[in-house]
Amino acid sequence: MTAIHDLDYGTPASESTTLVTLTIDGIPVTVPAGTSLMRAAQMAGIAVPKLCATDSLKAFGSCRLCLVQVEGRKGFPASCTTPAEQGLQVVTQNSKLAQLRRGVMELYISDHPLDCLTCSANGDCELQDMAGAVGLREVRYGFDGANHLKAEKDTSNPYFTFDASKCIVCSRCVRACEEVQGTYALTIDGRGFDSKVSPGQMEPFMASECVSCGACVQACPTATLMENSVIEAGTPEREVVTTCAYCGVGCAFTAELRGAEVVRMTPYKDGKANHGHSCVKGRFAWGYATHPDRITKPMIRKRITDPWKEVSWEEAIGYAAAEFKRLQAQYGRSSVGAISSSRCTNEETYLMQKLVRTAFGNNNIDTCARVCHSPTGYGLKQTLGESAGTQDFDSVRHTDVMFVIGANPTDGHPVFASQMKRRLREGAKLIVADPRQIDLVRSPHVEASYHLKLRPGTNVALINSLAHVIVTEGLVAEQFVAERCDVESFRQWREFVARAENSPEALEDVTGVPAAEMRGAARLYATGGNGAIYYGLGVTEHSQGSTMVMGIANLAMATGNIGREGVGVNPLRGQNNVQGSCDMGSFPHELPGYRHVLEDSTRALFEGTWGVTLESEPGLRIPNMFDAALEGSFKGLYLEGEDIAQSDPNTQHVTAALEAMECIVVQDLFLNETAKFAHVFLPGSSFLEKDGTFTNAERRISRVRKVMPPVGGKADWEITVDLAVALGYPMAYSHPSEIMDEIARLTPTFTGVSYDRIDELGSIQWPCNAEHPAGTPVMHEQTFVRGKGRFMLTQYVATEERVNQRYPLILTTGRILSQYNVGAQTRRTENVQWHEEDRLEIHPHDAEERGIKEGDWVGIVSRAGETTLRARITDRVQPGVVYTTFHHPESGANVITTENSDWATNCPEYKVTAVQVMPVFGASEWQSRFRKFTEEQLALLDQAGAEAQG
Amino acid sequence: MNTEHLVQMANQIAQYYAVFPDHAEALDGVATHLRRFWEPRMRAAMYAHLDQHRGQGLHPLALEALTSRAEQLRPAAPAAKP
Ligand code: SF4
Ligand code: SF4
Ligand code: SF4
Ligand code: FES
Questions:
Q1: Are A852 and A842 in contact (CB under 8 A)?
Q2: DSSP A427-441
Q3: ipTM of the complex
Q4: How many distinct structural domains can be found in chain B?
Q5: Phi, psi of A642 (to 5 degrees)
Q6: Which sign, positive or negative, has the C-alpha torsion A259, A262, A264, A270?
Q7: Pairing between β-strand A636-640 and β-strand A336-340 as defined by DSSP bridges
Q8: In this complex, which of A627, A633, A903 lies closest to B12 when CB atoms are compared?
Q9: Are A546 and A597 in the same domain?
Q10: Domain shared by A309 and A424, yes or no
Q11: Cross-strand pairs, A568
Q12: In chain A, what residues touch B81 (CB-CB under 8 Å)?
């Protein structure tokens, strides 16, 4: 079911710019040509009865309930499939139509249980509504004939129930799964009376291809497909529009509530990033917000071996502030710092960096984008002039060739992946560069033209080979380059990539990709029409991450694939607010709006508003903080929403650094891995408990709206304000909108942004200022932000992380649809049913060589450490490469990853670790220690609760 | 700071710029990068390594950038005190 108060127009909007005027029941209405009569009627305020139509799907015309009469035409056309034309006169109500509709309804109702009063959809059921709308008073066929009333319920999915007895076989679910989601998990089996809906080959939902996106549930007009939360709690009463807090797609949702209890999250139809679609995380995995593991009271302790003590907010904040001051007095102003997270709102990350720069008086602020997309910021700034993706998501509707590099959209960015798949089904071509066979390479009605299965760590060799083909085969968009780009940098780049050493043939042995495939892919991208590059962490998380980002920008500029719809360079951001946290000055060298701390004029601007003198030297980045902590010069850390002990590479190095510090303040929802090393715990608030904004991968700023009070009593921004005040720096905000107003005053790309403006427009893509008052969907249209586009040289340098006899395999890491990053949230929901543990994917050949069988425990050893996982044998990975996800802390995926990092940004090289894999019988030494430490820390936590009660 | 680690990082930066045909541009590239992104105690540790071990293990371009642009790069000592 759609959100309870959503108006359903029956069919999708027409994109035609030609308008036609017609009359419906005597009311004149002007609509774009191609609009259905049904939609036109609804636009005039007339609801035509319907069952098989809904505006997220193409019209199907099967139920015959929406019949109308058109003057001068014979019969009773279905209004959902009949397009509006100039001058038509349409009648939607008369006695003949009423009689026909009642006849249709009678048939439906005769095979439908009449348990409306106790049905979970009571009051929110289209069948019930339609029975009322057509004035159904009797069912002449009786209820005793053949029916489906005894059909079994399928309760295999943890989030929704399939009650086949209530199905009217309108096929909305089947079409939603195909058109909206692109999974093709549902079919209608049989014909006529015998036809019924089923997942896969008459399997339960959980055994089928279903990815639990919820599109079918949303499309179903009856209680057949129903959210369990609604079955349990009842239909919602009120709604608040907000933004998903998981991935960088930034889907808009309607949070539907009863009182302060969330009953359902329904993707918001007018959400410009998701257009009413969602994935299993945003739609269903929100139960963590009220999970019993939430810590709701502030706590402190002197040493990490002490029990936690629950204290008042004042005491906790006072203690943290006193400790930071003590450390600065003892070890120097630069001995403390902070790390914020892409999970925080813009306003929160802005306040974090402001606290560091004003109250701490240094630039030791970093954010988790350090370990994911910092090379994007660096690389795109160098070449294009702005640290952001160039397009909006809708741009993909105009793309002819999609080039996906090091990204796995169906798992990492599922809603955008559905949009990509739709365009691919329409005929766009696909090139994938990935060491592993991601789902997009081959899925229903989608097949990549090229899958460049490169060796991990050879991205730059790949991009140079492609550039070589483009330059030497005369495929450069010469006019674009001459007009838009820096000519000298282009000349140097052209000469460089044209060298024989950069040819696909010369680099074949390095990349492992046959030269012919490389040539074919380069030609397709350069000549196939609008070419758009989408990339992810498989690009950035390498020792040459920044070089690769620049290589991608070079390729887009050289082929003229930038500055208009359908093309561009599109980083797919992992977490919801990666773009935003970077925009907000969360890097140690940059103030908000990507302005360097070395620039006197920038500092002067902020000094004027903040009333302090700012440090002009760059601060420490996250890995530098760890090194400084181990060296003894960095002693105190304030973390909000970031679990570095699980997410950062070389866990043992990270935990040693944490142990070396004297004051660690963690602000989070749960006692996460880092909090086990903390001295102060400040209970954070989930996205449901606060106001703010997130900025998604397409630079879209959307509102996060509070739907329930913070369980710990304070929203995160309030905690940071209190800490700043306790440190002696006053911050006076009464609402996050005032923080955004300050950001807008200080940041040229944000001057037009305010909460009122966001409410007015729904969401805004920055830059939003006098020049672009409604925001900017596509960047660099006339000129590049830096003026002329600059080509950068991209010499391939092999990573130092090399395989050898001792470590003969390369481990690469990734994520899975149902889980989110360190999993702190998703592991506390039913999503664990899809992924209860991380596994090691290994090629059958490598497995056989080592005597490893499916499901065996294997030890994985690298230069950094050792852990164990169970093996999954699959040819999705190539021989020589193993793969795992990192969603469960006890897996210790990051015990194995090393501190090698990107040359420009220190973004860790998560994607390449040389390892050996062998069958084992017990846990690794690290895992044993981890388990013991976790038990100890949980006992210390229990004592906090016990003491507070005692 | 971990010198070995810093040397490795400096060398990676040098390797990126080594391909630039104009040597002065390459030197500028390395020096500017260190100035804009390295916190003073990292640069100080690099100079300590230069002073004590003549920059052992450093890529020639990194070494040259550090020596020829010392005025720009060597932080005023002591780096991390209030
Ligand atoms: S939940 Fe999504 S994937 Fe599963 S059957 Fe429904 S539409 Fe298809
Ligand atoms: S399950 Fe719902 S949407 Fe699917 S055919 Fe039945 S009634 Fe229609
Ligand atoms: S996780 Fe991403 S794709 Fe899924 S609903 Fe949230 S924002 Fe949308
Ligand atoms: S709504 Fe038009 S035929 Fe079903």
A1: yes
A2: T-EEEEE-SS--GGG
A3: 0.93
A4: 1
A5: -125, 130
A6: positive
A7: parallel
A8: A903
A9: no
A10: no
A11: A532
A12: 332-333
